[in-house]
Design brief:
The protein is mainly α. The protein is built from 8 helices and no strands. The protein has a single domain, classed as Rhopdopsin 7-helix transmembrane proteins (Up-down Bundle).
Amino acid sequence: MSKEAFENTTLAAFILLFLPLMVSIFRYKFLNSSQRKLSILVLCIVITETTSRLLWYQKINNLPVYHFYIIIEFLLIMYIYRDELSGLFSKLFFVVLGFGFIIFSIINTFFFQDLSTFNSNATTLLGVLVIFFALSYFYALLKEVKYSALETNPMFWINSGFLIYFSSNLILFFINNNMFKGSTEASYLVWGLHAIVNIVLTIFYTIALWVNPKKP
């Protein structure tokens, strides 16, 4: 992938982030609990990516932003899943997991991957945990006796988006520091594909915020 194609793809992925944000704003009073939690996550993503791009345009290292954001991202994703997986895991499980991730991220930043380096260790762990949540949610769905229309279930779209995104990028997150040394066609291709997966996730976010869930 050429540099121009890479920049156009990443720009398109960034601009598209505002679509689910606008949907959440205009439909906020109609959103259910999981949709409102997602809207908070989308707002944080937009703020983070806007800050990151502004720093990048100023030729300032934007990687420190992601060291702080990843903790917020994990806590918000865990917040989305906490009630949905209450039948499988206790509240104490999520509390311990949350504190454990925060401690791991801080240790990783101070001793292994400083603020000027992409925090691939913490990002890889995030991916593994979210995939675990996503598979657990599908398992919980299979255990339900009653039939529900998945196309009108916001959590189904959220969960599917998470599973596709983090499964696709898990290897990339892990080997990122080795692959992204210098600007090469290979690195542009890898991160261009990452931007495409981001677009797919954003579309799933938008659908999740757009659908009208049936009341139980």
